[in-house]
Amino acid sequence: MAFASFDPKHASAPMAEINMVPLIDVMLVLLVIFIVTAPLLTHAVRLELPQASSQVNPPVPDKVEFAIDAGGTLFWNGEPVTRDVAAARFAEAGQRQPQPQIHLRADQAVAYRFVAETLADAAAAGLTKVGFVTTPDSP
């Protein structure tokens, strides 16, 4: 395939046409490749999906908001109570299944004695899920 010559005697005008035959050959080869590979891309994958169970969800335990203010006053879900009433309610809550969660909020100025008495009453009633609620420091 000679397109041009460097010999000025035999020089002719440059070829101004594009030979389309090699381009068509490449296009037909690519078309055949796509026709052959297209069915391979659309096959299904067999999956073994999990089976759903219809079991009943376990009951969510109740929560008790127990608070102690700076003066040592006890609050059961916002209601003021005495230590004896709180101990009786702890004993009643310890008998329930599932046991409720105790969220203990204590003022930072409260004497530790009140917090310790409350924890002792809850432990005596058999309550094991006691959480301390705090307020994060502001940046």
Describe this protein's structure:
Helix 2 packs parallel to helix 3. This protein has 139 residues and is an alpha/beta fold. 34% of the residues lie in helices and 16% in strands. A hairpin with a 5-residue loop joins strand 1 (63-68) and strand 2 (74-76). It has three helices and five strands, in the order H-E-E-E-H-E-H-E. It has helices at 21-41, 83-95, 112-124, and strands at residues 63-68, 74-76, 79-81, 101-106, 130-133. Strands 3-2-1-4-5 form a five-stranded mixed sheet. It has a domain at 63-133: Nucleotidyltransferase, domain 5, CATH 3.30.420.270. The longest helix is centred in the first third of the chain and has 21 residues, at 21-41.
Quick structural gist:
This protein has 139 residues and is of the alpha/beta class. It contains three helices and five strands.
